[in-house]
Hints:
The protein is α+β, with helices and mostly antiparallel strands. It folds into four domains: about 30-140, 2-Layer Sandwich (Killer Toxin P4, Chain A); about 145-330, 2-Layer Sandwich (Killer Toxin P4, Chain A); about 350-435, 2-Layer Sandwich (Phosphorylase Kinase, domain 1); about 440-680, Transferase(Phosphotransferase), domain 1 (Orthogonal Bundle), CATH 1.10.510. Helices cover about 35% and strands about 20% of the residues. The strands form eight sheets. A six-stranded antiparallel beta sheet has the order 7-8-10-9-6-11. A five-stranded antiparallel beta sheet has the order 1-4-5-3-2. The longest helix has about 30 residues, at about 290-320. It is globular.
Amino acid sequence: MQLPLPSPGxxxxxxxxxxxxxxxxxxxxxxxxxxxxxxxxxASNTNYTRGGAFQANLDALLSSLxxxxxxxxxxxxxxxxxxxxxxxxLAQCRGDVNASTCLACLDGAARHMAATCPGQKDAMLIxxxxxxxxxxxxxxxxxxxxxxxxxxxxxxATQPEEFRTRLGALMGNLTARAxxxxxRMFAAGKAAVSPFANVYGMAQCTRDLADDDCNxxxxxxxxxxxxxxxxxxxxxxxxxxxxxxxxxxxxxxALGAQEAMSPAAAPVPGGGPxxxxxxxxxxxTGSSSHTVRTALLVAIPVAVALLLLVAVxxxxxxxxxxxxxxxxxxSSVHEDEEDMRSSESLLYDLxxxxxxxxxxxxxxxxxxGGFGPVYKGTLQDGQDIAVKRLSxxxxxxxxxxxxxVVLLAKLQHRNLVRLLGCCTEEHxxxxxxxxxxxxxxxxxxFARRHxxxxxxxxxxxxxxxxxxLYLHEDSRLTIIHRDLKASNILxxxxxxxxxxxxxxxKLFSIDSSVGNTSRIAGTYGYMAxxxxxxxxxxxxxxxxxxGVLVLEIVTGRRNSYTHASGPSEDLLTFVWTHWSRGxxxxxxxxxxxxxxxxxxxxxxxxxxxxxxxxxxxxxxxMASVVVMLNSRSxxxxxxxxxxxxxxxxxxTASENPPRRMSLGRQGPMAAARExxxxxxxxxxxxxx
Length: 688
């Protein structure tokens, strides 16, 4: 029975925590695939023996399917071996992608299938651009219309009634075209919702199906839209044998889609499995009546599609598209016992974590922040872990935990801390991470700074930069961290930096660049001025924090001071004063071997000053920062005077923020103290 998915929101996301962790296991295994992995299915009750006949057959099958599909208009099915160790497989790419993209997606899927579903005879990976499926039993030609996955755009559609009407008509048309008129069982198109807005849609079946089976499968997933994505600007519904998607922007390649729907795009024969040479086993090629029906159904849609193609190009030339990633995700409507077992494999028992941390003893406590304490633990197999424990009195921390799980379940990079799992028993809220032996950067850079030579500091600076670049531009999501500081940089055994603490991070749509909040949260001294004063944050806010952090790493000085030892200038004032006067020697004294590589040190300071300029438009992107740090041939622009803050005593959440200072052309000039907005929350200055 098909059940409606939970409505979007933090409550629904929290209820899907085991599922999100299940999805994260697939993402963590697929670290080199550059394509969006939307659905993973591993049948854990069909394990095979490693090194046996089935694995040999499966390896041979998976090694041949990607190239065969790329060479055959994006589709191939095959089987290898003899019973009872036969391996059946199917590979298919989205109808509008080109051969090179198809091959790259399927190659990546084939390489990571074993890691994602280890030792399992029946498995399926579905990416945005391709899908790969294998089994020990023949599934080829058998339609499976049960909905396995649903995702939606969080934005509501304007003119919802008109939108539903137009969407229904569009998807009905695309269903018929994909099933009966498209050689690749793929159709894409659009419908006008208003003179200035369209809805775009796509429908596709696996090409081993008969036409009528494809039509029934697509009818089923289209009928599921009200349960999943009603009133939303976009959504997708995926079954094993077919899928649909709709958006308010063009998400498919128009030329590729037109080619896929053209009669000239000859399909690989479908309706049954193929042998090793690609010939149909049962030889079912259809009847003459089917040919006539296909010809009639193709003629009119092709003519209309050509007109639509011209309109699409004209429209795209003048439209500033606003893309929206699906950030609310629900999967596996049929959550059978098999899926639950897979999800629960990433959940830790509370008794296990209590034993690992000696019941959260003070001796195992690594630090404490706004979220709560962090403890070191050792599991029974000897693996060291770090356990973050939500404080029972922290209301903000529970929201932060949900946020961190949602984000880290989708992110994987060598310079981001790795989430291992969680525990939610007995009112406890625990996150389990990889344990990093060298703790946080602030414990080394300030207390033991002479242990860090310049080469190591430079590697740490560049590693943090690569991690931020991944968050801003290279991940499937666009993430603004909002709390980048030395205590949130952890170091592994090889002193590789890893960005941690995503409790305050914000998710952006791909083309969004600026956000606004009435709740300021973060750490003063690292906050960009436009965020601290007005709640405006963007990727350039993280760039500002990165610039402050780089100056701390280079000089070994904290960015802020208390009045315990009398008044003193803040870090940005100190650096800018010496830089602008040309007296740079005091800036180099924080590194024990700075004299040997002074030019490299000064170049890092130069880049950092570019990052902390007051106007966010004057700050470089992280992509530019990474290039500037790694290329000595690029001439850097002269930095303007930075923005900076002079904190007084420690600021609490209910107090006003520190005074904002601006180093203008005429020197420092203090602005009036402004009140905080909605009781700004400030992170502690020790590791979380």
